[in-house]
């Protein structure tokens, strides 16, 4: 397959390593231009291109994996000419304290983080890979049927795109779990029980069922408070996200 990846950091590189090792052609981009990605090309086997080229050459999948605050910087016409059937994967998470600053639409109300991303991109997205550490994504995939295989939720309003992405998740060595619609994708966001806990599919499904589908204001506040505590803990450890 031909896969375009916009963002060549931790997640973009981890995906590129795995996808090239599975025999796929990967086109990867950052904000500074392909000439700055020689080391990434060497490490991953992907071809460095511009973001526009990654969108055009990713004829099977396009992955957008850049910091949330940078999403509005992407060119308006990035997906012009890209067939509507090509799934656009979004891996975003909201880190208001350490990276993204406060985005009022994400602090209250119904909008989910990837819902905000798809509004900016002007295209439906598929939310996945947001709730696993890059190193685990690169190294902890296992064959189907392995006990304890990690389950990853996949959420989108585009059911055909979601099915294609779920097959890709399986190919990468994880159990794909249907995470519902974009409106329901809050359940896999930071601060919740299935965020970066490497749970097997049955436990992911149990949490999704227990959380329900409609987010209450209390659940929203609880997830944000948990994320704030996690960010403060990271800050105390000297972890920087930008
Ligand atoms: N790190 C993880 O373990 C992890 C896990 C799950 C989800 N996530 C989420 O996935 C997203 C990416 O995270 P990351 O850790 O991989 O980020 P990262 O290591 O900081 O890398 C970000 C990449 O995005 C590129 N970029 C920024 N603005 C761009 C633009 N306008 N056009 C093209 N490329 C642009 C950067 O390129 P330049 O260097 O040239 O600016 C860089 O290659 C974030 O939302 C993050 O929260 C991360």
Description:
Keywords: Oxidoreductase. With 242 residues, the protein is of the alpha/beta class. The protein has one domain: Rossmann fold (3-Layer(aba) Sandwich). It is built from ten helices and eight strands. The protein has helices at 10-21, 38-44, 51-57, 96-100, 104-107, 113-121, 134-139, 159-171, 201-211, 217-236; strands at residues 2-6, 25-29, 47-48, 61-64, 88-90, 126-127, 151-154, 175-178. The protein has a six-stranded parallel sheet, sandwiched between helices. A two-stranded parallel ribbon has the order 7-8. The longest helix is centred in the last third of the chain and has 20 residues, at 217-236. The model has no long low-confidence stretch (mean pLDDT 98). The structure holds NADP nicotinamide-adenine-dinucleotide phosphate. The site of NADP nicotinamide-adenine-dinucleotide phosphate has 25 residues, from helix 1.
Provide the gyration radius in Å.
Answer: 17 Å
**Fraction in helix:** 25-40%
Mean pLDDT over all positions: 98
* Total discrete domains: 1
Please report the first level of CATH classification, the CATH class: Alpha Beta
Task: Show the helix and strand layout.
Elements: E1 2-6, H1 10-21, E2 25-29, H2 38-44, E3 47-48, H3 51-57, E4 61-64, E5 88-90, H4 96-100, H5 104-107, H6 113-121, E6 126-127, H7 134-139, E7 151-154, H8 159-171, E8 175-178, H9 201-211, H10 217-236
Parallel strand pairs: 1-2, 1-4, 2-3, 4-5, 5-6, 7-8
Domain Pyrroline-5-carboxylate reductase catalytic N-terminal: 3-94
InterPro entries: NAD(P)-bd_dom_sf, P5C_Rdtase_cat_N, STEAP_metalloreductase
Protein name: NAD(P)-binding domain-containing protein
